[in-house]
From TrEMBL:
Domain SaeA fourth Fn3-like residue range list: 453-540
Protein name, as recorded: Uncharacterized protein
Domain named SaeA third Fn3-like: residues: 347-444
Lineage: superkingdom: Bacteria
Annotated region (Disordered), positions in chain: 60-90, 689-713
All copies of domain SaeA first Fn3-like, residue ranges: 147-231
Compositional bias annotation for Basic residues: 704-713
Any Pfam family the entry gives: Fn3_SaeA_4th
Length: 713
């Protein structure tokens, strides 16, 4: 019997497809199945059953023309009788088909009573090979039309054009015997070419025979020898089918009749895309007994379709099969079970980030994965809930995402990936099992995504360094660590963790890094329920800073030394191997600005390596002899002869830089903080030029911390 749900599904079949099915001259499962789209082929048997239950669907006449509205001068025409629905409204007609009266081809008025003794005795010798044949079909097998019993319709072609023609219909269960119109059960005489016989309740099969009598008049027809129109064996569909289901066991019984040799039972999913009597669905013989069957299914929460097909055995040993029964459906009940993810993690793919998960299938129901931006209410996970509660709790809102995966075999592992929603920093991944109008929600897994830092840089300021970067999306904190260059994570020192507010208030991360170079490690992270999610760390290298200091002191000429300026250069805080080169630059009116690319009156003057000495070779590039010490006492010394000094003005020691002074190398600076500004006055030059025979006076170094005129200002 076609269920209400199946009728609703049939109503959604495209109209042109239904028209094609309605136009079939030979209705079979294969012919209906061939016209249906792939995703609707599971409806082939219900459509066939519906058409066979209600043949009016095949014989409906077109709708009559609508009656025009009467004009004021005309009287309304009598309302015509309701015409059958047209094929333009097939969906509604299929839904209402069970209530439409069948339009019968058999006319009972053509049946008449006749005493067989009035007919001439049959003289045998029927020509079976030349008999045109008889066709049959079943009507109202499901009993939809309560005014009519299930029946067999026999049909044949008119045998001859004689003035008088009538037919004799007989039946027998003695299949294989020679046909005979007299010794078999007499059913009827008729003038028509159709006959209906109620399906007998106590027979598994019948052979129907149709004989014709004909003549120029009634008398000649009565004495004519009967001729065989055709014989047809009809195996009746199984009746009295009753199905039950419980604890995963489908049990069925039927009305067993004499003549049944065996019963074929087919069980399949109601949405299977194959005919219900496909061999793959047939139960093994050990599941089927003479009057019942039992089938154990591991599935729960599904609907199964069941059809039965009887077998009879011909006297010659041949097994013959009848028509399958109408499709019966049975629901396999099941209890919803909560499922939990085995594993959930984020993966990066060429097409974007994804959420990967694995889970074992529940006993029953369809499996869904929900992605939400907030954690679902814990109340949802306590017990089974109405499916509509998912919407009431906001899980089915447009901003959230659900992925259906259908039925998974019980305890079968499903490993899948779904796309991480675009622009989401946090995702709650929730397993949900649905069965009918109910759902079971599993525990959610919170996942955070924190972007890495890819634009960090270290800026050098006087006395400190400032690390700046764009705040990483999704991070609540950034952990800052420092480590010696080239060292491992075990050598790291945690500076502190910064919030975005603290970072923006300070304009960056202020650090005091080692002049020799260090690595700064930045790790964005976010905490949820005291569990951190960390992005990949970013390491920014600080190459270091070599800071050089210098002092200058006037040297008065004596008998053993020349007059000039003693120059000391040292490193601030550490001994420097392979130090850079220096130059002494003079400008008469202002402080020199660069050791190379001189301009605006700047000029380099020569200096000799070592202390004051006569005739020491002076060069304009000061190259250290070995390492430079970390204090003034261990400084490298040079001497600037007075002859190299052009006159009153400004002296400054500067670095001789390459075209790319830093690159990835250690930064280098030299400062004037140990001088008083580098101003050289004329009277100081005069002191340096005095004759060595005159006892020198102490030069004026007042106001300086260090020896010489270049003290701290």
């Amino acid at each position: 019997m076609v269920t209400v749900e199946q009728r609703e599904q049939i109503a959604q079949v495209p109209r042109d497809v239904l028209r094609s099915i309605m136009g079939l001259t030979h209705l079979t499962y294969d012919s209906v199945d061939a016209l249906l789209p792939e995703d609707l082929r599971y409806l082939a048997q219900p459509i066939l059953d519906l058409l066979l239950e209600d043949e009016s669907l095949l014989t409906a006449e077109p709708e009559s023309e609508p009656t025009p509205e009467p004009t004021p001068r005309e009287e309304a025409a009598p309302e015509p009788e309701q015409a059958p629905a047209s094929k333009s409204n097939l969906g509604e007609r299929f839904k209402l088909a069970a209530t439409v009266a069948a339009k019968r081809r058999f006319n009972p008025d053509q049946v008449f009573e006749l005493d067989p003794s009035l007919l001439s005795p049959y003289q045998w010798g029927a020509d079976e090979a030349e008999a045109p044949g008889v066709e049959y079909q079943f009507l109202n097998l499901a009993g939809t039309d309560t005014d009519q019993a299930p029946r067999v319709e026999l049909a044949w072609s008119r045998y001859s054009d004689d003035p008088v023609v009538f037919y004799r219909i007989v039946a027998t269960t003695n299949i294989g015997a020679t046909p005979n119109p007299e010794i078999n059960e007499q059913l009827a005489f008729t003038e028509g070419v159709y006959f209906e016989d109620p399906v007998p309740s106590n027979e598994a099969f019948r052979e129907y025979q149709v004989w014709v009598y004909r003549g120029a008049d009634d008398a000649s027809a009565l004495v004519s020898q009967p001729e065989l129109v055709g014989r047809v064996l009809v195996i009746f569909p199984v009746r009295g089918i009753k199905l039950t289901a419980g604890e995963g066991v489908i049990a069925g019984t039927w009305t067993a009749l004499p003549g049944h040799h065996h019963m074929r039972v087919f069980v399949s999913d109601v949405k299977a895309n194959a005919r219900p009597d496909s061999s793959e669905f047939q139960l093994r013989e050990d599941f089927v007994q003479p009057m019942r069957f039992e089938y154990i299914t591991p599935e729960r929460g599904v609907t199964k379709r069941v059809v039965l097909q009887p077998e009879i055995k011909h006297p010659d040993g041949t097994v013959l099969v009848g028509q399958i029964s109408p499709v019966h459906t049975v629901d396999i009940k099941g209890e919803l079970a909560q499922v939990e993810f085995n594993d959930v993690y984020r993966v990066e793919t060429e097409n974007g980030p994804m959420v990967a998960f694995s889970v074992y299938g529940p006993p029953v129901g369809d499996f869904h994965v929900y992605l939400t931006q907030t954690r679902p209410s814990p109340d949802l996970t306590v017990d089974d809930i109405p499916a509509e509660a998912l919407s009431q709790e906001g899980m089915d809102d447009g901003g959230n995402i659900s992925h259906p995966f259908g039925v998974i075999g019980h305890n079968e592992e499903l490993a899948q990936k779904v796309y991480w929603p675009q622009d989401w920093d946090e995702v709650f991944v929730t397993p949900v099992v649905k069965l009918g109008n109910y759902a079971r929600v599993g525990p959610s897994v919170a996942m955070q995504h924190v972007d890495t830092i890819d634009d960090a840089e270290i800026r050098e300021f006087v006395g400190y360094q400032l690390v700046t970067f764009g705040w990483p999306r999704g991070a609540s904190l950034v952990r800052v660590q420092r480590q010696p260059q080239g060292s491992t994570a075990e050598d790291r020192e945690i500076v502190r963790e910064f919030t975005e507010e603290e970072y923006r208030e300070q304009g960056g991360v202020k650090l005091f890094l080692d002049n020799g170079g260090e690595d700064v490690v930045l790790t964005p992270q976010k905490y949820y329920e005291n569990k951190p999610t960390r992005a990949e760390e970013t390491i920014v290298s600080y190459p270091g800073l070599w800071k050089f200091l210098y002092s200058m002191c006037i040297e008065v000429p004596t008998a053993t030394q020349a007059g000039g300026i003693s120059l000391r250069i040292w490193s601030d805080g550490r001994e420097i191997m392979n130090p850079p080169n220096f130059s002494v630059v003079f400008n008469p009116t202002r402080k020199p600005l660069a050791g190379t690319a001189l301009s605006h009156g700047d000029r380099t003057i020569g200096a000799a390596l070592g202390g004051p000495a006569f005739d020491a070779p002076a060069g304009t590039v000061l190259i250290a002899n070995g390492d430079i010490g970390s204090s003034e006492e261990t400084a490298q010394r040079w001497f600037i002869p007075v002859e190299q000094i052009p006159g009153q003005g400004f002296l400054r020691v500067l670095l001789v830089m390459d075209e790319d002074p830093y690159g990835d190398q250690i930064r280098q600076i030299i400062t004037d903080e140990c001088t008083n500004g580098g101003i050289l006055r004329q009277h100081q030059i005069d002191w340096m030029r005095r004759s060595p025979q005159v006892e020198p006076q102490q030069p004026d170094n007042s106001g300086t911390r260090r020896r010489g005129f270049f003290g701290r200002g």
